[in-house]
Amino acid sequence: MKKKIAFLAPSNLKLEQIKDFLQDYHNEIIFDIGSLDDGLVKAKELIDKGIEIIIARGETAFNIRDAHPEIVVIDVPISGFDLVVTLEQAREFGKNIAVISFPSMIKQIESLEAALGVRIMKYNLTSRDDVNVAIDNAVRDRAEVLLGGYTTVTAARARGIPCVGIVTGKQAYVETFLRARDFLSTIAIEKRKSGMIQTVLNHSYEGIVSIDEKGFITTINPVARKILGFTGHTQQKIADVWPELQLDKLLAGGKEELNQLYTINNVQVLCNKVPIKDRKGIIGAVATFQDVTKIQLMESRIRKEIYSKGHIASYTFQDVQTYDQKIKAAIEMAKSFAASDASVLINGETGTGKEVFAQSIHNHSKRAKGPFVAINCAALPAQLLESELFGYVGGAFTGANKEGKPGLFEVAHTGTIFLDEIGEMDYINQGRLLRVLQERVVVRLGSDKVVPVSVRIIAATNKKLPDLIADGKFREDLYYRINVLNLIIPPLRKRRKDIIPYAKSFLADMSREAGKSITLSQGALKVLEEYDWPGNIRELKNVIERLTVIAKRGKISAAFIGRIIKPGNDLEEQEFESEDAIIIKQALAACRGNISETATMLNLNRTTLWRKMNKFNIKK
């Protein structure tokens, strides 16, 4: 039978004594000499020969255990009888006894104080380098005699201080060996389990890497080796192999971290990090991770097929008609923004065409084949907006779909999400949006599952967000996240050259759909051009649509346009006024109510003009 247990003695004398104690078990034990540094060298040789359990004493056992956590190291304990004998010897020098040793050697020695009539002071060692400091402390505390192992006795004798070595009897050595033999049986069982686990690790589709409490790699399977490009052996620091993972930091916090995205060697992985615990606390950590490229492609196809129908951007930069240099400059800037994947904030008054620019940026970008999802943040209450943006699981709230629903961020995966009127978003949802921007993941309401998303954010507002930040209504950190690229759309009143082309374009499309032939008179065009259009292009489009519906004549007059722009008058009555009345009103409007200029335009004298105005009840 191959021997699996080794016993390291500090000296030849001690070795012969131990052999004598364990003479009935020689066929199961390898006996050797090794203490402190020599013990480490000897332990390495024994491990290479297949030894699985090493029995040693004090600092030697401590050092081997620290250097070789993969094997079992057993320290020889001190029995109660041995302690009584040693304390009796020490009492001959005095009743104040200082015990200087490694903690594993002396346990509950204080319980013998009353029985033996002595005072016991304990000084625990973690290294032999601590022994002289411990002796100094014991002398300071008026110890009359020192008690300890080989390290303590050697140091005390060198300084001429009374000391007694702790003597270990036969029974302690026999019990230690029997315990080692039991461990050996347990190891055999664990090896069988380990073999099964190793088979699972080797055939897992996930990368798996585990570390011990000191951050050294203890397990790494083939998939993890391939992703990490790791060709070394275990017992390397995880921080040296994959520093971005920060798995060793999990040992301090102890909180699991699930579904986190990392990039390693140009491979994007979805990773779970979990601490390994026993009854005493955290003893290590494990990370499992998958190459998410194929998963993302699959998710993308599913999302596109099921959810993204209808989420299409129809406008391009060719649809932005303009004669204004400011808009031309905005178009060129927006095209440059399209080449990036950074967030865009579009500022402009309501109706200026912010969504047209957002769709055009999407269609000009590398995400053009992905969905374009738009939502007006001002149109929904906070709770409904939250569920629409981030989705929910079944039963998350009253009335929720029992099967749950994906949020718009999931729907927009691989594409663009347009958040219109973002200044109206409530503060809580602003915080959740910030998390999505920072971590590129969403969590549905009622769920703890993290869903990774790849989405480009384009936001728009007609408000001054810095003012909202000053009033505590908008998050400053979110503002800087969405305002990476900034685009300003000037209002229609500041680009009057575009008013007439837009009006004619809208009228041509709408009159064709209505089956009518409608044109605008010169006076009507002038009224349109001089109006300030607080609702911008949207208001202009609405005005054209309205006049298309209610117009009874083929040519639209200035007066008719004026009454549409300023509602409250009877349009039907205006349509049936005499042609003379309409002409006079158009001329007055064109001349801004100046009677002399109007009379000259109509080739009338002032008196005749006044008479006609009174006849048709036309006010100046």
Folded structure, characterized:
The chain is α/β, with parallel strands linked by helices and 620 residues long. It folds into 5 domains: 5-76 and 172-179, 3-Layer(aba) Sandwich (Rossmann fold), CATH 3.40.50; 80-167, Rossmann fold; 206-290, PAS domain (Beta-Lactamase, 2-Layer Sandwich), CATH 3.30.450.20; 317-490, 3-Layer(aba) Sandwich (Rossmann fold), CATH 3.40.50.300; 495-615, Helicase, Ruva Protein, domain 3 (Orthogonal Bundle). The chain is built from 27 helices and 24 strands. It has a 5-stranded antiparallel beta sheet with strand order 10-9-13-12-11. The chain has a 5-stranded parallel beta sheet with strand order 15-18-21-14-22. Strands 2-1-3-4 form a 4-stranded parallel beta sheet, sandwiched between helices. Strand 11 (257-264) and strand 12 (267-278) form a beta hairpin. Helix 17 (427-439) packs across helix 19 and helix 26 packs across helix 27 (606-615). The longest helix is centred in the first third of the chain and has 33 residues, at 170-202. The protein is rod-shaped, with a radius of gyration of 43 Å.
